[in-house]
Amino acid sequence: MSGDTGGSGRDEERLDTGRIPRPRDAVDDGPSTGDGGTALTHQVLKSLLGAWALSACSAEETAAVEEHLTGCARCAEEALRLRDAVGLLHTDGSLDLDPMLRSRVLEGCLGRRPARIPVPSWAAPYDAETARLDALLRDFGDAEWHAPVRLKWFEDERQAHRRTTVAGVISHLTAVDGLVSAALGLDDPLGSGEKPPSPTGRTETYWSSAYHPPTRTVREPWREQSHTLVRTVSFAGRGVGELSVPYGGFALPLEDSLLERAFECWVHGGDIADAVDYPYEPPSAPHLHRMIDLAARLLPATLAGRRRAGLAGPARGLVTAGAPGRSLHLEVEGKGGGDWYIALDSPAAVGSPDHTVAQVALDGVEFCRLVAGHVPPVEAAAGQEGDREAISDVLFAAASLSRL
């Protein structure tokens, strides 16, 4: 019916769209011959259908496949399905990633979980210990917040005690942490106006003020204060660790002050855990080592102060600045342990293993309990050797580092 123009137009449209002519009813599984005269089997031509649908065949292969499709109904149907599937791939679209994709993904992630600020290594113990204590407090009920806690420290050559509650301990930490806040120009929990300069005076003032409700409501201000301190020192950059934090009669660099606050947070976390009969582990070994090192560095000046007050034996060695003088070998064993050489005669002297007159050996956690005033000096050392007076002076000096 070559004279039927309408029918010819429809056939051409079908061929242009799929390039698949109407198959014959019979299936010819014999070899097909491309334009180059190479015979291709049915199996080979069937395997080329995917490449043909993607227009990835050579000219000879395309001709052979299309010739085969005119005689194989099953392959013709498969070819139509493959060509329709290829149309869904939108191969005409760009495969390049949207340049704004990374920004949108990061924005979405940060919206769900804010990025963690890199914390300076010297602030990491404070960050860790406040987080541990906060985790302990999280599920406390009213009974736990009112549980009695006995705080212990060393004062006037003997152990001192003060009874408070779990809420009172958190208020104590808030008041003393306020020294660091004030040094950084942040809000002081004691408010504006004249405030006692010492940690003990600040605590007594805070306990007697309206800022200290003896309930669970003390947790959130302490928690927010600790987060703000960590955030502030993390953003402050280099040099902030040298900022001086006054403690009344003495001052510490911010770097040491936050370490001291981490130590007290751990000690009082243990006091709280004891009050509610809950286990509480020591800090990690690296953090515990830092705490022990701080106490060891403070011992020469503390010992000199006790000597001036008549509470320690006289200096016996050379006291020239930079001179070695006499030393005590402090050997701390176990978790966080190490070796320190404590200058006995002057804070300006340098401890040296060559001028050791005594040695004290004890466990790391036990040494920290001594520094916290939780262990009497006469009961602290597991091993002692050498000058008895020097040993006694150092142990009592370590205990006198404690306070309310």
TrEMBL record:
Biased composition (Basic and acidic residues): 9-27
Domain of life where this protein originates: Bacteria
Domain Mycothiol-dependent maleylpyruvate isomerase metal-binding intervals: 127-273
Signal peptide span: none
Chain positions covered by the region annotation Disordered: 1-39, 187-209
UniProt-listed Gene3D superfamilies: Anti-sigma factor, zinc-finger domain, dinb family like domain
Presence of the UniProt keyword Transcription in the record: yes
Domain Putative zinc-finger: 47-76
Entry keywords, A to Z: Transcription, Transcription regulation
Name recorded for this polypeptide: Zf-HC2 domain-containing protein
